[in-house]
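Section: Multi-chain targets

For targets with more than one molecule, the full set of components is provided together so that the structure can be written out for the assembly as a whole rather than chain by chain. Components appear in the order listed by the source. The example entry contains three components.
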Amino acid sequence: MTENATPTNMGSTVTQVPSPEPGTVDMMVNMGPQHPATHGVFRMELRVDGEQIQDLVPHIGYLHRGSEKLCEHESYSQIITLFDRLDYVSNFNNELVIVSAVEKLMDVAPPPRAELIRIIMCEFNRIASHLLFYGTFAIDMGAITPLLYNFRDREKIQALFESVSGARMMHNYFRVGGVKQDVADDFESRSLALCNELEYGIGETDRLLTENEIFLERTSGIGVISGEDALDWGLSGPVLRASGVPYDVRVDEPYSRYDELDFGIPVGSAGDCWDRFYVRILEARESVSIIRQAIALMEPGDTMAKIRRIARPPAGEVYAHCENPRGDLGVYIVSEGGDRPYRLKVRPPSFCNLQALRDLTVGHYIADAVVILGTLDIVLGEVDR
Amino acid sequence: MLSGLRGLGVTLRGALRSKVTSEYPKEHLPLDNRFMGFPALTWDVARDEPYCTGCMVCVRYCPTQCMSGKMQDNEKFSEGVSHRKKIIESFEINLGRCILCGICVDVCNFDAIEMSLEHERSERLRNANRVDLPTLLDMGRVYQVEVGWKQSKPNAASPNERAVAKAAEEEAKAAEESVVGAPDLVDSVNMAEETGDDAA
Amino acid sequence: MSFTDILFAFAGLFGLFSALAVGVLSLTWLERKTLARIQQRAGPSVVGPHGLLQPFADAMKLATKEDIIPAYADKLLFWMAPVFVAVPAFLIWLAIPFGDRVAVRVLDLGLLYLVAISGIGVVGLLMGGWASSSRYSMLGGLRAAAQLVSYEIPIVIVILSVAVLVQSLSLDAVIGGNTITIGEATRDLPGQGLIPFAFVMPMGFVIFFIAGLAELGRTPFDIHHAESEVVGGPFVEYSGAHWAVFFLAEYLNTFVISALIIVLFFGGWSWPNPPESIFGNDLSSTTTNFVGGAWFMFKTYIVAVTIFWIRGTYPRLRIDQLMTFAWQVLIPLAFVNFALIAVVLFYDWPLWMMPTLSLPILIGAAIGVQRGRGVRDRPQTVRILRRSAGEIGRPMPNAPTQTQISGEGQAGD
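Its structure, encoded as tokens over all components, is:
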């Protein structure tokens, strides 16, 4: 691609590349940063022969905000607010990663009640993130109703978040050593009632889409990737599990109190778009079961460990990773002993999953590119940081 | 087409349910007391002055550096009315930059700043959404009434109040220990059981 | 033609035009309200009571919008394209009967006229796509033309089946029945007063409905103006009043297809009344004809709501899947339907033989489509593994342990 990009047509939407067949040219179709279906500011350049995609060049960086650089100048309590905004759809999971990393470095364990509250919030956030996925995936294919149903359920979850942390999205609720404040008295009953409503909502999307013939035609056999290829590319999360690799950080390297909870992880075998979709549906159902178990385990207690308010971890390095709804989110911190890190590096699952986009899409039609990008479930805040 | 007909049933059922949207701004949904709206400064009614002493901890810890302020000597301290040696003179928050994270509330030692329930403060010009000290104190007063606010941080109280509170706490503790002599006994029984288990 | 004839013709046309304009605007409102109801939200509710004036607000907005014509556009074709799409939609209404021999123009060859006029709309889309001189609109225009032409065929064959059933091309015969003489014998072919043709030819009804949806370019067949891909298709370069005419044409077509479904398969103005009277009243008075027309419109609106309901439920097909569906499923089924009705009438079998023969074929085809997509075996490709069952919980091989990373002050190996 770079050999054809001259300064005058850099970033142009119309360039022609001579194709292998004599007398024909392939067409460049640009699905530019502004497009209803690219899930954020993301640019895909497709080289197509008629309707079939021959090559795909992704361009990222439109949402780069310098988060990792900012983290070098901010204390850990401020970094939690930055991490909220990385993957802006699953905020609690991001907070959990950074807080776990600093706790690991400081060798601090949060009290059991705080850990359960964290697990419950993370699982609700997982359900909310998957609900967003179903809705946007369906509307990319033309089904306009699941989006509205899923957002109705997301609103309920966000109302619960508001009653716990004070904010619907950018919570800044987890702290090094626990959580900011205890939950209200009606939290348990409210969460259980919400779990029932969410089961109904997930079931609604399931009945609308999963066995719909048109949905199957659009997603079955599209964007297939095998388990070995997925591991080679470094994929993680539902994308990896749909290809048959049963790897989930919550199960294989348990953190927080996940080893006390009994839940299943859905694993696919076909590795196509339908499997990636259905794995997420089953995952949301398992999250409901996790929340119910966690609520049953809750006991009165402290919600914050007895440490100083401003965290000053000792010098050292730490890597901590958790299961984001999108995959394996990791953070690597190099600390020199102050209240700010020396260097902080994020391993975002969407960024790593996006690497496989070209391999998944080449050979399919233009309409399939949108579907495949949807199943990777990327959030540009995480990709670009 | 047959399993696709199930989808029609789902949408039909959806059509029979009531609507879940509300027409803003005609209808406002209720906010939780914990809702983090824009920050506001609290007012100490007993001493008729702000809680804020101008220590600037919140200004330093704000991630977006949206606040600025100035401290001055407190006349009421020299008059003996208040325990605050310094008091806030001027304070400005650029609400356009505030990310509503609540860190300022967490680090404040004096209960001086709270996240109010206000969230509808748009302005037309880009940098015009800035509020000064009187507006912040007004917002704070409204917030304090709305949620029945009580001060909670120990440093917010004056030394006298703290001494009184501490004395009351110690009295309550002593009363508990004297009335129920059993806790000692129960504790020793429990300990015996535990050691018994270990031995076995 | 005397002067009064011409006056009546113009009056009829003018009345039809205004009635259709109101009807189409009401259809846009109805669509938005139906979708909103399905999605548990309000829909238009601000402009006028229950948002009833919303279509007028939309029309005013579109009329006052700036008209942008691309620099390289073919000006004549650019202007003519919306006309070629909208005018046929109006023209079809000339033949549709609202009562016994009550139409703007009573045509003996009504069905032939319908088929002929509906073919003109394709040309308009092609013109729009070409004249916009834009890559996306060209792609969209070609796709739209291919789709419309392919789905014309099942529609025409089903219309032919209906014509065979009543042995006439006149729309009044389709509703009211026909009497034919073959040599010495006369045969009374019933109309739809007692049993609508949807029950006589269920396969034909389903084929016509699905092919009609595709003719309209509505979900699940709206790939040519799918927002997530070619973002507007042949209409992408049109703005303001030009686009309003395309928009109008789409809803006119929706209205017309719904009306045709009722005329051909649900008895038009008559069912469930026998053709001699409407709700017990004699056919000759004007009020009864009004009631008949209103009843016809009511049924049409029910079909339109069903079309909107389908739009709210299903995702859309890709263009090649759409074409496969037309050529490999609908056209063979349409031919089978035609052959069946011809056989039933030729051998003078009772009419209930027709649904008895065609329903199993229809259900068999539906099951075949399902099996072809692998509906039954799909959920089994995903299974749930549990730690308690011992199926998962082993750490990944070669995963670095925490001591390797953070202890000893060394960076990773």
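Chain B has seven helices and seven strands.
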